Amino acid sequence: MPRLKYGSILRVFVILGLLCIWLQIMLSASSVSMDKDGDIPLDIATNQTNIIELYTEELMNYNDTSEQVLALVPPELHKYLTVHHKNISVNATDRTAPKNTSDIRRAIEMINEAQTIYNEDIYGPVQNDTIIIAIQVHTRLTYLRHLIVSLAQAKDIDRTLLVFSHDYYDEEINSLVRSIDFTKVMQIFYPYSIQTHPNEFPGMDPNDCPRDAKLEEALKLKCNNALHPDLHGHYREAKYTQTKHHWWWKSNRIFNQLQSTAGHTGMVVFLEEDHYVAEDFIHMLHLLRATADKTCPQCEILCLGTYLKTYQYHSNTDKVEITPWHSSMHNMGMVFNKTVWNNIMELEQQFCAYDDYNWDYSLLHLSQNRPGREKFKVILCKGPRVFHIGECGIHHKKSNCNASTVISKVQKLLQNAKKYMFPSRIIATITAGGAKHNKKLTKGNGGWGDIRDQELCTNMTKIGRQFRKYIYYA
Questions:
Q1: Out of 179, 203, 282, 308, which residue is the most buried by the measure of CB atoms under 10 Å away?
Q2: To which CATH superfamily is domain 97-202+233-459 assigned?
Q3: Where along the chain do its domains lie?
Q4: What 3 state SS string does 396-458 have?
Q5: Sign of CA dihedral 60, 66, 68, 70
Q6: Alpha-carbon torsion 272, 275, 280, 281, what sign?
Q7: Which of 463, 470, 24 minimizes the C-alpha distance to 203?
Q8: Per-residue DSSP letters for 352-382?
Q9: 254 DSSP assignment
Q10: Per-residue exposure over 425-442, b if at least 16 CB sit within 10 Å of its own CB, e if not
C-alpha cells in the first residue's frame, strides 16, 4: 500500500479512536456528581485534559511523513523517518507515571555512568576543539526524526559530537538516536524528571499546593511550600519547571561532568528536538567564530537561528549582525564555549533564584545584572541556519500538529537558497539593538517561586552531589 494512503487510513482510525475516548469521557463526566458551582470535579477535568494532550501528541508522532517531504530527503536517509507503529494506550497516566519507574531510573543511572560514545571507532575520539551539538529532547518523535535528517545532510557533521539530552526515557526514541551512523553520538538522561519522579518532587507530590490556591488556603492545607508561591501568587507546576531544570542540568553535565569533555575548549551548539538545520550551518559557525574573534572579541554568544517569518537569502546569506543578546530573539541555535559557561556559573544564584520558569529569560536576567560587566553580546546570522519546525509543545497549542506542512516549507526554502549557501566570507554590522533588546527586565514570568526548585537548580552544579528529597511545610 502506498505510504501516503497508509498514513491517511491510519490517521482516520486514530481520530475515530480519539472521538470514542472523548465520548466515553463526556458520558462519564455526566454521570458523576457536580460540585456546588456545577463544574466537573478537578480530578476528572484534569484527566480529560491529560488524555487529550496524550492523543494530540500521539497523533503528531504517528503522523506519517508526506510524500512531498520525502521527495526532498535523500533515499538513504528515509530510514530515520520510518515509523514503527505501536498500540496507543488509553491510559493517559502511562506517559507520566509508568509502572516500571524503578527500572527506568536504573537504566538512566547506568547510561549516565557509562558515558558511551557511539561511532567513536569510526569517526575518532572527541578532541578539545570538537564541535558539540547538544540537543534537548522530550517526546516529540516526529520533529526529532526530521532534525536528525537535517543534521545528516550538513557538511562536516562527521567531525562533531551529538549529545542527546533526554528528560523522557523511551525505547523508540533511544533506538532512533542509536541508529545514527553519520557521526559520534552520546545520550545523557536528566535524572530528576517527572517521568522518574511521578509522585514526588521534582514531579508533582500529592501534598503539593494546587496552582491557584490562595496563600490562606495553602496555609490551612499545610501543603508543600505554602509560604512560597511565585510572584503572581501561583504554586509550581512540574511540567513547566522541568524545562529550565533540564537545560541547566544538561549544560552543567556537558561542560563540567563528562569525561570526554573535561578539557573541551570548543563550541557547544544548543538545539532542541523541534529545530531543523541548514546544510552549511557548521560552515557558518566557523565564519561567525572567526568574525567574532576579529571584530567582536567581547561577543560571548553566537546565534544560528532566528524567528523571522520571511528570509531574504539573496541579500542576507553572507550578512551577520552584532547586537545585545536578547532571550526571545537569540535562543535558537545558540552557541558558546566553556569560558562563557564559567562566567554564567559565577552568577548561578541569580539564575537559580530568578522567578521565571524559562531558562532563556533567566539567562537574560543574569546578563542584565552582571557586576561590572556589559550585557551579553551576540553575533548572529541574518540569513538563519537553524529553524523552528515545532507546531505543538509547552508554548504552542495549535490544533493542527501536522509537522509535514512546516517541514516542507523549510525544505523548499533551503532548496531555493542553495545557491547562496556556503559564503566565502561574511559582512558584519554592529547595532545597538531595538527597544526590546535593551528593555530592563523588572520581573520574571513566574512559575519559579518554590524554594525546592531553586535549591535543586543550585545543587545541580555541585559535582557528585546526590539528589535529596526536599519537603517544605507551611
A1: 282
A2: Spore Coat Polysaccharide Biosynthesis Protein SpsA; Chain A (3.90.550.10)
A3: 1-89, 97-202+233-459
A4: CECCCCCHHHHHHHHHHHHHHCHHHCCCCCCEEEECCCCHHHHCCCCCCCECCCCHHHHHHHH
A5: positive
A6: negative
A7: 470
A8: HHSSBS-HHHHHHHHHHT-TTSPPPEEEEES
A9: I
A10: ebebeeeebeeebeeebe
Q: In what order do the strands lie in the sheet with 131-137?
A: 117-118, 184-189, 160-166, 131-137, 268-272, 334-336, 299-303, 377-381, 319-324, 427-430
Cβ(154)–Cβ(131) below 8 Å: no
Which range of 34-43, 312-321, 461-470 scores highest in mean pLDDT? It is 312-321
Cell numbers found for residue 431: 547595532
pTM of the full structure:
0.83
Q: Which residue's entry shows cell 530515520?
A: 80
Percent of the chain whose pLDDT exceeds 70: 77
The three cell numbers of residue 261 are: 569533555
Which whole number is the average pLDDT over 179-192? 98
Which residues, in sequence order, are bridge partners of residue 388?
Answer: 275
Q: pLDDT at position 348, please?
A: 95
Task: Please say if the pLDDT value at position 34 is more than 70.
Answer: no
